[in-house]
Design a protein that fits this description.
Oligomer: single chain
Structural class: alpha/beta
Strand order of the largest sheet: 3-2-4-1-5-6-7
Radius of gyration: 18 Å
Distance between the termini: 45 Å
Shape: globular
CATH architecture: 3-Layer(aba) Sandwich
Helix content: 25-40%
Strand content: 15-25%
Number of domains: 1
Number of helices: 9
């Protein structure tokens, strides 16, 4: 089984959310062997600071995970643009084949994409094509604030047009004291039958390790956690009514 973590934008914490998902799923007894793949990454100066390096570091005490990366570029631009700059062509067909072969040897494969759905990999292939061609289950990381409804709904529209197996959204960096948008946006998603598969709180860097210890509270059952969407929406409705009605 392949699950693919993508986002409705860049720089909204997709790597951090993926790292939490990996941590949570690795503690499930049924997943004794997990493949963590970052197929393509750009903006990499050294492995330690790469997305895969960060995920590895944050889960360094876990023994049932193997990490894979196939293309790494230095320039912080789209993979296709970076490949042109470095004159290093991405072989898309080979990439899909390699991932499928890896997936056969593992209980579950987790993939973190590069940027959002329409980010180009080659002149003809985008991230959304990879999700489709791998027959992945797709999770979309979104931010909680003003503007996320537009970006999220457009992304989901594209996912559905491609007939991708969409599981739901993960709301990252949810504030302790949410404003009106942060309170109502989840209600809107729920009312429009968009599943919320997790809510990750906004935290300080010093609190990251604590969050890993309780990662199951942030993520849904299918991601190894115990997050309850109904309870979260009820709390949002209660807070919305209290503050604004």
């Amino acid at each position: 089984m392949i699950i693919y973590i993508t986002a409705n934008d860049t720089e909204i914490g997709k790597t951090f959310v993926t790292s939490l998902i990996l941590n949570c799923l690795s503690k499930k007894n049924k997943f004794s062997k997990i493949a963590m793949i970052k197929p393509i990454e750009s903006g990499v100066k050294n492995h330690k600071d790469s997305d895969l390096g960060v995920i590895n570091h944050n889960n360094k005490n876990l023994k049932n995970i193997d990490y894979f990366n196939f293309y790494s570029f230095k320039e912080p631009v789209s993979p296709y643009t970076a490949s042109l700059i470095q004159n290093k062509k991405v072989n898309y067909k080979s990439l899909i084949k390699k991932i499928n072969l890896i997936n056969q040897d593992y209980d579950i494969t987790i993939i973190e994409g590069a940027g959002g759905l329409m980010v180009p990999i080659t002149s003809k292939k985008k991230i959304i094509d990879m999700i489709k061609d791998l027959n992945s289950y797709c999770y979309l990381v979104v931010n909680p604030n003003l503007g996320t409804i537009n970006h999220t709904c457009l992304s989901i529209q594209s996912i559905r047009e491609y007939n991708i197996k969409f599981k739901g959204i993960l709301i990252n960096s949810y504030p302790v004291s949410p404003g009106i948008s942060e309170i109502y946006n989840p209600i809107f998603f729920s009312n429009n039958k968009i599943k919320i598969k997790g809510v990750i709180p906004r935290i300080k860097k010093s609190e990251i390790r604590k969050l890993y210890l309780k990662s199951s509270s942030c993520l849904s059952k299918d991601l190894g956690g115990k997050f309850n969407e109904d309870n979260f929406i009820k709390s949002c409705k209660k807070l919305f009514k209290k503050r604004h009605l």
